[in-house]
Design goal:
Layout lengths: L1 H25 L9 E12 L3 E12 L2 H21 L7 E13 L6 E15 L4 H11 L3 E8 L3 H23 L7 E12 L3 E3 L2 H4 L13 E13 L1
Antiparallel strand pairs: 1-8, 2-4, 2-5, 3-4, 5-7, 6-8
Helix pairs in contact: 2-3
Length: 236
């Protein structure tokens, strides 16, 4: 029985030590809060677009879905031939959307099926100087959907990398400016958030490019790409 008493005493001591260790772990002082300096840097650059993305397509209605698809396919084949004849390369034409919907008439207060609609749109990448001729050729071949034209540059990623570098340098310079007259220095970057804007987007209205278009005047102008970066630096 004495041995059992010793064993029980040892267990009690072990539990007490474990509990004390747990208390010590909870009571450990928290790490000092990280101090930071925040600054916003900006960079921008104007450019003349060297590529255009034209979104266009064909919409057809027919009593049956088979007829609507057949008519759409025939018109789209004519459009593709016309676009290639206007200088568009096959690899620069990509289908963007294809929809098949049933039409309904609600004039009587009830939904009455009236036929089917097929819409097929594609994005065409071309040189800006070909936009007008491509719109003309597409319209004559049967294009009745013109959604938008977006002007851009082929070296966009290269330009973005340059702008980010300049914006980061601008943010660092501003952060250092706030430390003038103090003994503090900047440490590592804690966080970065970037906000981009540009280039311009030209939207086509119904009376602008819808239906038949002849010699549509399209000017690229000058676009601008800019970035704003919010940077937090560790303060030493």
């Amino acid at each position: 029985m004495k041995h059992e008493g010793v064993i029980i005493s040892l267990l009690v001591v072990a539990v007490a030590i474990a509990a004390a260790g747990l208390v010590l772990a909870v009571a450990r002082p928290a790490a000092p809060q990280l101090r930071v300096v925040a600054a916003t840097g900006r960079a921008q650059q104007s450019f003349v677009p060297d590529v255009a993305h034209l979104d266009l397509g064909v919409q057809t209605d027919a009593p049956t879905v088979e007829k609507a698809q057949e008519d759409n396919s025939a018109t789209m084949n004519a459009v593709l031939a016309a676009l290639k004849g206007a200088g568009v390369k096959s690899e620069d034409i990509q289908t963007s959307n294809f929809y098949v919907n049933q039409n309904f008439d609600y004039s009587s207060g009830q939904s009455k099926p009236t036929g089917w609609r097929v819409s097929n749109t594609m994005t065409v990448q071309i040189k800006p100087n070909l936009v007008s001729s491509v719109i003309d050729a597409g319209s004559k071949a049967g294009v009745n959907i013109f959604n938008s034209i977006r002007f851009d540059i082929t070296n966009r990623e290269e330009l973005k990398a340059k702008l980010v570098k300049n914006a980061m340098a601008n943010a660092r310079a501003k952060a250092l400016g706030t430390l003038e007259g103090t003994t503090h220095t900047l440490g590592d970057i804690v966080s970065v958030a970037a906000d981009w804007s540009g280039p311009s987007l030209v939207l086509a209205g119904a009376e602008g490019m819808g239906g038949y278009a002849m010699s549509v005047p399209v000017e690229t102008g000058t676009s601008e790409l800019s970035v704003s970066v919010s940077v937090s630096f560790e303060l030493h």
